[in-house]
Automatic annotation (TrEMBL):
Stored PROSITE patterns: ABC_TRANSPORTER_1, ABC_TRANSPORTER_2
Taxonomy, superkingdom: Bacteria
Name the record gives this protein: Cell division ATP-binding protein FtsE
Keywords: ATP-binding, Nucleotide-binding
Any one GO cellular component localisation term in the record: plasma membrane
Gene Ontology MF annotations: ATP binding; ATP hydrolysis activity; transmembrane transporter activity
Keyword tRNA processing in record: no
């Protein structure tokens, strides 16, 4: 299977302080992978490194075919076009409709023809089950619906990888479950998913590969057989 993330002996800093080191992580297409760990352990920092918002200080890294060490500033938008990013707080533009939120991203990533943009907008909204909300304003939607819009936005450019930072953090358990089903369905279609969460209930309910951030590094959690996310396999 094709590797969408390959980090070898990676090190990540925040303000000159090492947050993660000796990071070795490989993720292939279609995989659904959780990134767990305590608050402040470095989950967001790792995701930021993958979408080139933080530098990979040492080590090698390749994300959707881009070499993180060689990536020039002007190439960052090209990398982000092949990655979908979903945040806990949705990050929708509140002053415009759902469709105009999608247009905003499409324009920024090189789409030009309005009719084609509208067609693609409706298509991704259909994929997440809210096509009928296309012309509503964000505040007219529930939290779960807003998160579906942000997932639709992440899907616009057919990403090879979706990075989701606590995507269910602001949602009630039932809505979280529906969003998890959606994310799993997207991963099955071929988009790799790396999802940071500290909701262990979700990890148990929707099994997947688990990586744990602890002691300034990332470890694979043994998830075979008796699933126990607290059992850590040492490298
Ligand atoms: N912009 C920043 N400037 C300086 N230090 C930062 C910055 N962002 C994060 N840090 C520090 O880096 C470390 C890792 O933070 P990070 O946000 O990656 O953790 P996290 O696991 O995502 O936490 P949470 O679950 O609370 O989101 C923490 O010690 C944090 O204080």
């Amino acid at each position: 299977m094709e590797k969408v993330i390959n980090i070898i002996q990676g090190r990540v800093e925040q303000k000159k302080v090492t947050v993660l080191q000796d990071v070795n992580v490989t993720i292939s297409s279609k995989e659904f992978v959780y990134l767990i760990g305590k608050t402040g352990s470095g989950k967001s920092s790792f995701l930021k490194t993958l979408y080139a918002d933080l530098r990979l200080v040492d080590g090698q890294g390749e994300v959707v075919g881009y070499d993180l060490n060689k990536l020039k500033k002007r190439e960052i938008p090209l990398l982000r076009r092949k990655i979908g990013i979903v945040f806990q707080d949705f990050q929708l533009l509140t002053d415009r409709s759902v469709m105009k939120n999608l247009f905003f991203v499409m324009k920024a990533t090189g789409w030009k023809k309005k009719a084609i943009m509208e067609q693609r907008g409706l298509e991704v909204l259909r994929m997440v089950g809210i096509e009928e909300k296309a012309y509503k304003m964000p505040h007219e939607l529930s939290g779960g619906e807003q998160q579906r819009v942000s997932i639709a936005r992440a899907l616009l450019n057919n990403p090879e990888l979706i990075l989701a930072d606590e995507p269910t953090g602001n949602l009630d358990p039932e809505t979280s479950g529906a969003i998890m089903n959606l994310l799993h369905a997207i991963a099955k279609e071929g988009t790799a998913m790396l999802m940071a969460t500290h909701d262990m209930g979700l990890v148990e309910k929707f099994p997947g590969r688990v990586l744990r951030v602890e002691k300034n590094t990332i470890k694979e959690v043994e998830a075979m057989g008796n699933f126990n996310p607290f059992e850590v396999k040492e490298f």
